[in-house]
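quick one: zinc ion bound model?
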Amino acid sequence: MHERHTRPQLRRFRNEILLPNVFRVLQWPHKTRDGYVRFLCPLCREFNTAVNPATNLGRCFRCERNFNPIDFVIEVQACDFREAIAYLSPLLPPPRRDSQP
Ligand SMILES: [Zn+2]
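yep, here:
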């Protein structure tokens, strides 16, 4: 099935699928320390990381890289963008009734 993804839909993937949920589904090592969710960086394999709950971005302070949920799946699964979207689709919460079509 071919599915077309609009810009607002992609924004939902980045904002509404919380990174800690992505870590859980991937069974990716993560832990909460000092009030922040820290995750194993898929690039340098260190825990010098934190999820910013305001932006839903995971940052590795060593690599100086940010990961949104789509980036993270691409990195961990070594897949392409379309496969990452397919992987994340089941995690997307149902659209709010008051949201724009
Ligand atoms: Zn890193």
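The chain has one domain: 7-91.
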